[in-house]
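Continuing the series of single-chain predictions for the mutant panel. This is the parent chain; the variants come on the following pages.
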Amino acid sequence: MSGSKDKRLFSASLQDANSAFLLAEKGAAQPIRVGFILLDYFSLQAFTAAVDALVTANLVRTRPLFEFTTYGIGSLTAKSDLGINISTSGLLDQLHVEGDDFLDILIVCGGFRCALTERPILTAKLKAATRKDCILGTLWNGTIALAQAGLLDDQECTLHLDNHAFVKESLPRVGISDLALVVEANRATSAGPSSALEMMLVLIERSQGKDTVRAIREILSSDQIAENPDKTLLQSGSDP
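Parent structure:
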């Protein structure tokens, strides 16, 4: 049959979870625009966890729900914490805040070895984004960039435990939570890879509902042992 090779097939356990969304879609709303600012030595695992949630959300619907772009500071490539260079969509200074087509969500991606010094261009872009009612999010210690811009004063947020002391000493107006994830009306901060995924799922649920998030979880949790304690991920070829 023509076009059959493009049809998505789901396993029996996922079929019911996804068919409801595919049949219920109406209208052609514009995808939600998400931007990621990749600091040098950003956590690749946290970044991919966040992006995976967006890509999977698009897979469980017949139209794209999200589109994302990436930005480097001073370079079109950003070095991850694993030493892998990631090509970005553009430079941060090319991120234009003017106009009505600005991003809906902007996320600063940090990592264990990211520099903690303030970057004027980053501060300026983050401040401009707040005037557009853009949701600002962070991964790992990307929270520090928001705090240095004064965008977390007298607010609760979170970041990687290794950076708690730095923020408490140098940015005392910022409230640091011991939780791995803090999501407020227009701020979303996370401490590591697992909480990065959960943060994105919270944001996705806001616009797409619980059913879409349930479908995403079904797909991304297919290899979790915790849900099937009597099974293992590895199977030996023969009994000992």
